[in-house]
Amino acid sequence: MAVGRRWLSRTAAAALLLVGGIAVPAGSASAVDPEPTFTFDMIGTTITSGAGMKRAYLRVTNLTDETPSFVEFRVRPVLTPEDQWIDKAYLKWATQTAGSGECDGDFDGWYCHIYQGTFPELVPAPGGTADIPIDIYTRGRPEPFEGRFHVEVSMSWGRNGKPVTDRREFTLTVVDEREADLAVVAPDVKQSARVGAGGKLETTGTLHPGGTGAVRYRIVNQGEKAVSGVRVTLRLPEKVTFIRPPQECVLDDDGRSAVCTYDSLALVPADETDPKDHAHSAVELHHLVTVPADITAPVTLAGGSVQVEGLTEGISDRSASKPAVLPANAVAVPAADVDASDNQDGYAVVVAAEKDDDNGGGGGLPVTGPQAGLIAGAGLTMVAAGIVLLLARRRRSVAFVSGDDTTAS
Which residues are paired to 62 by β-bridges? Predict the structure, then answer.
């Protein structure tokens, strides 16, 4: 029986080598095994010396077809014995009206952890972008200066995915310019929406093919001078269309671009906000949009953008808080802006698949990454093990009918 034993040993060894080669995933990967990747930028890092506080944003874009399970970022100022610029201004995670995740640290270095299940709004969808707030504070009214700082971002996909890390250097700039400083933030469109009683926007669930969503964006004046109006330029992603744009908006021929001029939408500096006088430093607007019913989901429609500019007709700061009625032969002109880096934001429209109630499927993204590798590896392992057992049983049957011949070959 030596021949049978050796032949079986070689077969088993080959099968086990096959199992060993396929059962262990190579690491975090999508269905076609690309390297998970992302990009990030810091926008809005110029502040007027008299503003006191400004909200900047860490803008993270997910370039994969999976939602990351974890995001971490670290902020550390570049300091030298001769330049301790954090005595004049510093960066810190957001605590007012918004959060930046689970954060810890001090002025000379801090970090934030963001888990998908805890802070879903701060985790970028596949092909989408997340705006993570970071606040800048000035101490007193410092002289103009520049301070460098590092931002390191790590993201991982799946339960045991290997983190991917990138690091960049940015500059915080304090200027002595008493002008307006508009900023806009437009989150990705993920929910279906409708306009309820009193014109209030209401979300109605996940956005599916044929559904209606809302492009929302918040405009804030973080400078030291008011604007008497705002002009907004909107661009929708391909296959997305407007539903009844406001009368202040003029649509382009393709139906996906609009310029909206709000001549009387005055925005004052934050320290001049007074609800009694209808003086506001921030406003949120929305536009209803729809996606086609025949679109294949799940899919992320990228390429949307919102750009804003302040308008002024040369009136004083205080009078800008009141609605302005321009003469028939006058138009509002763009106002000076301290920091134009945060005057535009991109967004995507995320369309989910309809859920299949019969089998519980649908509604999610394809199973990819390390989870897919583990499932495939486990399945192939069972197949290979079954082959080994089948061949062993077959060989034992052949050896039984061959009589007493046990001569080795």
Answer: 38
Is the bond preceding 269 in cis, omega lying within 30 degrees of 0?
Answer: no
178-365 architecture in CATH? Answer: Sandwich (2.60)
Residue type, 28: S
d(CA 315, CA 178): 15
Average model confidence (pLDDT) for the chain?
80
User: How many angstroms separate the CA atoms of 275 and 318, rounded?
Assistant: 14
Residues near 151 by beta carbon (within 8 Å), at least 6 away in sequence: 40, 42, 58, 73, 74, 75, 167, 168, 169, 170
> pLDDT at residue 32 above 60?
no
pLDDT tens for 37-57 read 899 999 999 999 999 999 999
Coil, strand or helix: which one is 315? coil
Is residue 145 classed as helix, strand or coil in its secondary structure? strand
Pick the CATH number of 35-176 from 3.40.30.10, 2.60.40.3670, 3.40.50.300, 1.10.10.10: 2.60.40.3670
Residue 97 has pLDDT above 70, yes or no: yes
Q: Which residue has the tokens 């900047």?
A: 56
Contact 54, 181 (CB under 8 A): yes
| Pair of tokens at residue 361 | 């499927």
**259 strand-pairing partners:** 233, 250
Beta strands at 46-48 and 164-175: parallel, antiparallel or unpaired? parallel
Q: Cα dist. 56→48, 134, 227, 276 in Å?
A: 13, 5, 20, 28
Is the backbone of residue 140 left (phi > 0), alpha (psi -120 to 50) or beta?
left
- Check pLDDT > 60 for residue 146: yes
pTM for the whole structure: 0.75
Q: In sequence order, which residues have a C-beta less than 8 Å from that of residue 315 and are 6 or more positions away? A: 228, 324
SS3 of 219-237: EEECCCCCECEEEEEEECC
